[in-house]
Amino acid sequence: MTPLKLLALDEEDLAVVSSHLQDAVVRVGDLAYLPSQKRFAAVLNRFDWEGVGEGTKDYRRRRTALRFDRVLAAQHKDLRPDFKDRVLSLLAISFEAEDPPSGNITLLFSGDVTIQLKVECLEVELRDLGPAWPTSRKPEHPGDGAAGGESPGASGT
Asked: 3-state DSSP: the chain helix, strand, coil percent, rounded to 5?
Protein backbone atom coordinates (compact mmCIF):
# COMPACT_ATOMS: atom_id res chain seq x y z
CA MET A 1 0.00 0.00 0.00
CA THR A 2 1.64 3.19 -1.20
CA PRO A 3 1.38 6.13 1.22
CA LEU A 4 -1.13 8.73 0.07
CA LYS A 5 -0.63 12.48 -0.09
CA LEU A 6 -3.69 14.22 -1.51
CA LEU A 7 -4.69 17.87 -1.78
CA ALA A 8 -8.33 18.88 -2.32
CA LEU A 9 -9.09 22.33 -3.74
CA ASP A 10 -12.54 21.66 -5.22
CA GLU A 11 -15.55 19.41 -4.68
CA GLU A 12 -14.25 16.69 -7.04
CA ASP A 13 -10.96 16.53 -5.15
CA LEU A 14 -12.83 16.41 -1.83
CA ALA A 15 -14.90 13.45 -3.08
CA VAL A 16 -11.64 11.54 -3.69
CA VAL A 17 -10.38 12.36 -0.18
CA SER A 18 -13.76 11.31 1.25
CA SER A 19 -13.65 7.96 -0.57
CA HIS A 20 -10.18 7.20 0.81
CA LEU A 21 -11.34 8.06 4.33
CA GLN A 22 -14.61 6.10 4.30
CA ASP A 23 -14.66 4.00 7.48
CA ALA A 24 -11.60 5.69 8.95
CA VAL A 25 -11.75 5.62 12.74
CA VAL A 26 -10.70 8.49 14.97
CA ARG A 27 -10.62 9.16 18.70
CA VAL A 28 -12.40 12.37 19.71
CA GLY A 29 -9.13 13.40 21.39
CA ASP A 30 -7.42 13.26 17.96
CA LEU A 31 -9.66 16.01 16.53
CA ALA A 32 -8.57 19.63 16.93
CA TYR A 33 -9.95 23.02 15.91
CA LEU A 34 -7.25 25.71 15.99
CA PRO A 35 -9.09 29.02 15.43
CA SER A 36 -5.94 31.19 15.65
CA GLN A 37 -4.49 29.19 12.73
CA LYS A 38 -7.82 28.88 10.88
CA ARG A 39 -7.27 25.13 10.86
CA PHE A 40 -9.08 21.91 11.76
CA ALA A 41 -6.99 18.74 11.95
CA ALA A 42 -7.47 15.08 12.71
CA VAL A 43 -5.32 11.97 12.95
CA LEU A 44 -7.25 8.90 11.84
CA ASN A 45 -6.75 5.21 11.12
CA ARG A 46 -7.95 4.80 7.56
CA PHE A 47 -9.05 1.49 6.08
CA ASP A 48 -7.23 0.49 2.86
CA TRP A 49 -10.23 0.06 0.56
CA GLU A 50 -8.04 0.18 -2.58
CA GLY A 51 -6.14 -2.90 -1.32
CA VAL A 52 -9.23 -5.07 -0.83
CA GLY A 53 -9.41 -7.70 -3.55
CA GLU A 54 -12.00 -10.32 -4.45
CA GLY A 55 -11.89 -13.12 -1.89
CA THR A 56 -8.97 -11.68 0.09
CA LYS A 57 -8.91 -11.18 3.82
CA ASP A 58 -5.63 -9.24 3.81
CA TYR A 59 -7.12 -6.07 5.31
CA ARG A 60 -4.98 -3.12 6.37
CA ARG A 61 -5.19 0.27 8.10
CA ARG A 62 -2.80 3.20 8.11
CA ARG A 63 -2.37 6.26 10.35
CA THR A 64 -3.38 9.34 8.35
CA ALA A 65 -3.39 13.08 8.98
CA LEU A 66 -6.26 15.21 7.67
CA ARG A 67 -5.99 19.00 7.61
CA PHE A 68 -8.54 21.66 6.68
CA ASP A 69 -7.20 25.19 6.21
CA ARG A 70 -8.98 28.57 5.98
CA VAL A 71 -11.53 27.45 8.58
CA LEU A 72 -13.58 30.34 9.95
CA ALA A 73 -15.73 28.37 12.43
CA ALA A 74 -16.41 24.83 13.61
CA GLN A 75 -19.60 23.35 15.03
CA HIS A 76 -20.51 19.83 16.05
CA LYS A 77 -23.63 17.79 16.68
CA ASP A 78 -23.86 14.86 19.13
CA LEU A 79 -20.15 15.08 19.90
CA ARG A 80 -18.85 15.33 23.47
CA PRO A 81 -15.33 16.83 23.29
CA ASP A 82 -14.70 15.75 26.91
CA PHE A 83 -15.14 12.06 25.88
CA LYS A 84 -11.63 12.01 24.36
CA ASP A 85 -11.40 8.19 24.07
CA ARG A 86 -14.69 7.79 22.20
CA VAL A 87 -14.02 6.28 18.77
CA LEU A 88 -15.91 7.64 15.76
CA SER A 89 -16.21 6.06 12.32
CA LEU A 90 -16.07 8.54 9.44
CA LEU A 91 -18.68 7.88 6.76
CA ALA A 92 -18.22 10.81 4.37
CA ILE A 93 -16.98 14.36 3.87
CA SER A 94 -19.03 16.79 1.78
CA PHE A 95 -18.99 20.45 0.77
CA GLU A 96 -21.87 22.85 0.25
CA ALA A 97 -21.00 26.21 -1.33
CA GLU A 98 -22.59 29.32 0.16
CA ASP A 99 -20.91 32.27 -1.50
CA PRO A 100 -18.33 30.51 -3.71
CA PRO A 101 -15.61 29.73 -3.04
CA SER A 102 -16.71 29.80 0.63
CA GLY A 103 -19.08 27.28 2.13
CA ASN A 104 -19.47 24.49 4.65
CA ILE A 105 -17.61 21.21 4.91
CA THR A 106 -19.49 18.46 6.74
CA LEU A 107 -17.79 15.45 8.28
CA LEU A 108 -20.43 12.76 8.84
CA PHE A 109 -19.72 10.02 11.36
CA SER A 110 -21.69 6.95 12.37
CA GLY A 111 -24.20 7.53 15.13
CA ASP A 112 -25.36 10.76 13.46
CA VAL A 113 -22.36 12.71 14.77
CA THR A 114 -21.40 15.62 12.52
CA ILE A 115 -18.75 18.30 12.44
CA GLN A 116 -19.39 21.32 10.23
CA LEU A 117 -16.59 23.64 9.19
CA LYS A 118 -17.30 27.08 7.73
CA VAL A 119 -14.46 27.73 5.27
CA GLU A 120 -13.24 30.60 3.08
CA CYS A 121 -12.54 28.02 0.37
CA LEU A 122 -11.65 24.34 0.04
CA GLU A 123 -8.09 23.63 1.09
CA VAL A 124 -7.76 20.09 2.43
CA GLU A 125 -4.77 17.79 2.76
CA LEU A 126 -4.69 14.05 3.48
CA ARG A 127 -1.29 12.57 4.26
CA ASP A 128 -0.39 9.05 5.37
CA LEU A 129 1.96 9.12 8.36
CA GLY A 130 3.49 5.67 8.55
CA PRO A 131 3.35 2.04 7.58
CA ALA A 132 0.14 0.07 7.24
CA TRP A 133 -0.73 -2.68 9.70
CA PRO A 134 -2.99 -5.71 9.28
CA THR A 135 -6.49 -5.80 10.67
CA SER A 136 -8.65 -8.91 10.73
CA ARG A 137 -11.88 -7.05 10.08
CA LYS A 138 -13.37 -5.25 7.12
CA PRO A 139 -15.94 -2.50 7.84
CA GLU A 140 -19.54 -3.45 7.06
CA HIS A 141 -22.34 -1.33 5.66
CA PRO A 142 -26.05 -2.07 5.80
CA GLY A 143 -26.92 -4.38 2.92
CA ASP A 144 -23.33 -5.62 2.39
CA GLY A 145 -24.17 -9.11 3.55
CA ALA A 146 -20.57 -9.48 4.72
CA ALA A 147 -19.91 -11.53 7.82
CA GLY A 148 -17.30 -10.80 10.45
CA GLY A 149 -16.88 -7.14 9.61
CA GLU A 150 -16.39 -4.18 11.85
CA SER A 151 -19.36 -2.39 13.23
CA PRO A 152 -19.37 1.39 12.85
CA GLY A 153 -17.21 2.87 15.55
CA ALA A 154 -15.03 -0.22 15.97
CA SER A 155 -11.34 0.50 16.24
CA GLY A 156 -10.20 -2.02 13.63
CA THR A 157 -6.78 -2.38 15.16
From this structure: 15, 50, 35
CA 3 – CA 100 distance, rounded (Å) = 32
Average pLDDT, consecutive stretches of 10 residues, N- to C-terminus, the chain (157 residues): 92 98 98 98 95 79 98 97 96 97 97 97 97 91 58 45
| pTM, two decimal places | 0.87
- Report the alpha-carbon distance of residue 30 to residue 64 in Å, rounded: 11
What is the rounded CA–CA span in Å between residue 58 and residue 31?
Answer: 29
Which of 21, 37, 95, 98 has its CA nearest to residue 69?
37
Position 138 in a domain: no
Contact 22, 49 (CB under 8 A): yes
Number of domains in the chain: 1
Contact between 42 and 31 (Cβ < 8 Å):
yes
The answer as to whether 123 is a domain residue is yes
CA 112 to the chain's CA centroid: 14
